Amino acid sequence: MLQCAGRLASLLLVSLLSASSLILVAESHEDQGFHGAAGSRILLQDPHPHTHEVHCSRERSRAAWEAIDEYLMPFVEKEKYELPSKCRLRPDYDMFREQEQHKIHFDINDWRCGFCKKAFRAEKFLDQHFENRHKNLLDNSEGRCMADLCGALHCDLMMEFKKPKSKCNAAAALRNHHLCESLADSCFPINQGLAASRLHEFFLRQFCDAHTCNRGAKPFPKGGRKQTNRFYLALCVLTLILLPLFYLIVFLHQREMKKGVQDLRRFSKIGQKKKPS
């Protein structure tokens, strides 16, 4: 009996030791798992915690500024009007403006960074370079995303998107029209003089009237900078073509005149010889 009791006690002791060792191993694994998870969270954290992520489309911001520069600014410059500081159509409201001004375009496949002079084969690669290396130059404060104005400025048309085949969204057209009118009111207050009043009316016709489901209304009916340049280009080409043609006609006419005079002299000499002496 004593031997059986001793064996039973030994077995219980071994079992307790085994259980305690298993508990220690499990705790160590849990500890390692916790630290590993903590390490993963640290690695996933933003290395620049104070850097705000940019939620603004560079491409659509560029399209918005192209619409402003092409279809608005020539008329603003003609009126010698200065946009108010609260006007969101000003270039200083474009967070990408400084970077865009530091693009150097030598050739179709040669783009350069104006900050570090690095060369790229296409503009999209230069945009990626700005995003990776010169992001600190962005003024990512509220209200400085030109893409937010795309609804009013017809960015899709500037980006040469195809018109959707679906029916017109009347609610979206109304929202864009209200945004467009608010830009007209803030940038060209009608109580700020004749120039502002004229530009206010012009902006409504040029940009806002097209925000409707009426198919007859088209954006930019007053034309823009490119149309003016094309007119002068066509005029120059026409002049270069017609000017040589004019001189050719004058030259041929003078030559025919000289030939006619020589023929008359020849005929007169022949007539004089036939007269009896």
Description:
By secondary structure, the chain is mainly alpha-helical. The protein has helices spanning 2-44, 58-71, 73-79, 97-101, 123-133, 150-153, 155-158, 170-187, 194-208, 225-274, and strands at residues 103-107, 110-113, 119-120. It is built from 10 helices and 3 strands; from the N terminus they run ααααβββαααααα.
Which features would summarize this protein structure in a list?
transmembrane, signal, mainly alpha, 3-stranded antiparallel β-sheet, single chain, 277 residues
Relative helix content: 55-70%
Which percent range describes the beta-strand content?
Answer: under 5%
**Helix segment tally:** 10
Give the biggest sheet.
3 strands, antiparallel
Overall mean pLDDT stands at 78
The total beta strand count reads 3
Sketch the topology as an H/E string, one letter per element. HHHHEEEHHHHHH
Subunit arrangement of the protein: single chain
Distance between the termini: 184 Å
How does the helix and strand content classify structurally? mainly alpha
> What characteristic shape results from the CA principal axes?
elongated
Strands in their spatial order, largest beta sheet = 1-2-3
Stretches where pLDDT is under 50 for at least 5 consecutive residues are 24-51
Radius of gyration: 40 Å
